[in-house]
Amino acid sequence: MHRLTNTLLAILLATLALLSAPLATAQQTTQPWPTRGWAVSSPEEQGMSSERLARLVEFGAVNDMDSVLVTRHGRIVLEATYAPFRAGLKHHIYSSTKSVVSTLVGMALGDGLLDSTDRKVVDFFPNRLISTGSGANLDDAKKAITVQHLLDMTSGLAWQEGLTGGVESAIAMARSPDWQQFVLDQPMATAPGTRFYYNSGNSHLLSAILSKVTGKSALDYAREKLFGPLGIDDVLWQADPQGVTAGGWGLHLQPRDMAKIGYLWLRGGLWEGKQILPAAWIERVRKADIDMRESWASDLRYGRQFWLMTRRDTFMSVGKHRQLIVVMPKLDIVAVVTGSQRFVGPSGNVVSTPRYGFDTLVSYLAAAVTSDGAVAAKPAAMAELAEQVKAAAAGQPAPASGSVSGAPPAMAKAVSGKTWRFANVDPLRLKSLVLRLDGPQPSYEYELDGGPPNAPVGRFGGPIGVDGRFAVGGRMPYGPSAARGAWSADGASFVLEVQALGNDDVARVTHVFGDKTIELSIESANGFRAKAQGQAED
Fold first, then answer.
1. Which residues contact 43 (CB under 8 A, 6 or more apart)?
2. Which residues contact 210 (CB under 8 A, 6 or more apart)?
3. What is the pLDDT of residues 344-372, one digit of tens each?
4. What would the pLDDT profile of 59-89 be if each residue is shown by its tens digit?
5. Beta bridge partners of 497
6. Beta carbons of 345 and 30 less than 8 angstroms apart
7. 419-446 burial, b for 16+ CB within 10 Å, e for fewer?
8. Does pTM surpass 0.85?
9. CB 409 within 8 A of CB 511
10. Who contacts 459 (Cβ-Cβ below 8 Å, separation ≥6)?
11. Which of 485, 470, 526 is nearest to 403 (CA)?
């Protein structure tokens, strides 16, 4: 059972026995610091409604959340995970990485390692030949880009990404042999400082500049200055081919650790009595005024790699598919949400993506606040919240199809345990595959080989659920494996739905078996498609 469910049930039992006891003070005089672990409280003890938080958990279940965590007055009042994701696992936070990079830039400024955000960007790359994108010499517009322009997404560099468009430039950068050079060589679209345009290349240059001024990677600097002081030690952060920590995405953190970073922002850069991030850095974030120029974001402003909801006095780090750290200073709330795409629908082949509005989420949080101090316990509401959390962790099985719930077809025995070999499969890098489908616990195992620097290699895999639920175990390159499978009605093909938990990479792999051949059709929720053919090993 989920650890918060246990906590809530324990609180409920204690409350039933002590309903006549006097109310505790709402906000303890000693500010808690979660360095060695978060304190957990009932919502009512922190002036929030269990009933209304239960509605938030329900909302998450139909809006593709992987987790939701809410703290008030420095204590966790809600923590839910949605199957197959589980507590204690890291999650890719996508572009919320940008706000962490911004925090590190602020720390470098406070440490005197960066003298000003008005420094010209090209000055940090004196040994690079930088073009205007057309092969011409470096022009005055590109020379004028400052660190502040990178922070505010107003560099003026031509880029195909934005907030609602494609990610062509980000993909091209990731496929290039030198990410920094790729960004620096982009042509200028506008004069620096004149126009907001969302550009992950800006953020990667910030990470590269951090390396220049600190003498270490952004990851190592974070371990020393941010993760270490906050007690965060379970971290994965991807890097470019030169070893520069990815600035625009690539950071994987546990939701509880995401909340610690949000709590640092909530407390204005203060941690256990020490100012580890200049207070002025967060004050500037709270006064962000860059118009994002989106019709759907008229109330949103941008600054220093953060998003600000002006009417709500709420600022956030925002990542693809709603990886969020939400800070609400007036209500003393930090909320963390993670999410991912899913395959849904009667045939399980429709992609569902987290798309709810930020204002909707913040409204749920604000509505759950009933007082600044403790309120009377409501055992029935607390019990309902505990049951919602328990149901989220259990999840719902996929609709039955084919022989998913019945005995495996004859084909299962024929192919089980065979090693299938693949050659020249690019970009899959798939070398071999073994399926074990005729036993009480079906499983899969595959081997990756070759590829660019830092590409994962080795053997991966795990158990396969055949009851409509994901079986969790084994490993994938970026997290534990979760997989479920079903045979086609004619027993000739096997469809495997698989993901690395927390990596938002769910895919459906259809295996069509021949006499000594196998054909794979891979369909990722993010749009990637590929086919591969293999031969049975003699």
1. 49, 50, 53, 72, 77, 78, 368, 382, 385
2. 101, 104, 105, 108, 217, 218, 221, 245
3. 987 788 999 999 999 999 999 999 999 99
4. 999 999 999 999 999 999 999 999 999 999 9
5. 484, 508
6. no
7. ebebeebeebbbbbbbbbbbeeebbbbb
8. yes
9. no
10. 445, 446, 447
11. 485
3-state secondary structure of 60: helix
DSSP 8-state class, residue 369: B
Q: Domain 410-536 carries which CATH code?
A: 2.40.128.20
* Mean pLDDT value across residues 244-256: 98
How do residues 121-147 score in pLDDT, each as one tens digit? 999 999 999 987 777 778 999 999 999
Q: How far apart are CA 2 and CA 80, in angstroms?
A: 8
* Residues with Cβ within 8 Å of residue 45, at least 6 apart in sequence: 24, 26, 75, 77, 374, 377
- DSSP letters spanning 192-233: TTS-----HHHHHHHHHHHHHHHSS-HHHHHIIIIIHHHT--
- The helix/strand/coil state of 28 is coil
Coil, strand or helix at 436: strand
Question: CA 197 → CA 154, 171, 434, distances in Å?
Answer: 6, 17, 46
Distance CA 258, CA 193 (A): 31
Which sign does the torsion angle of CA 213, 215, 218, 222 carry? negative
Domain ranges of the chain: 3-85+340-394, 410-536
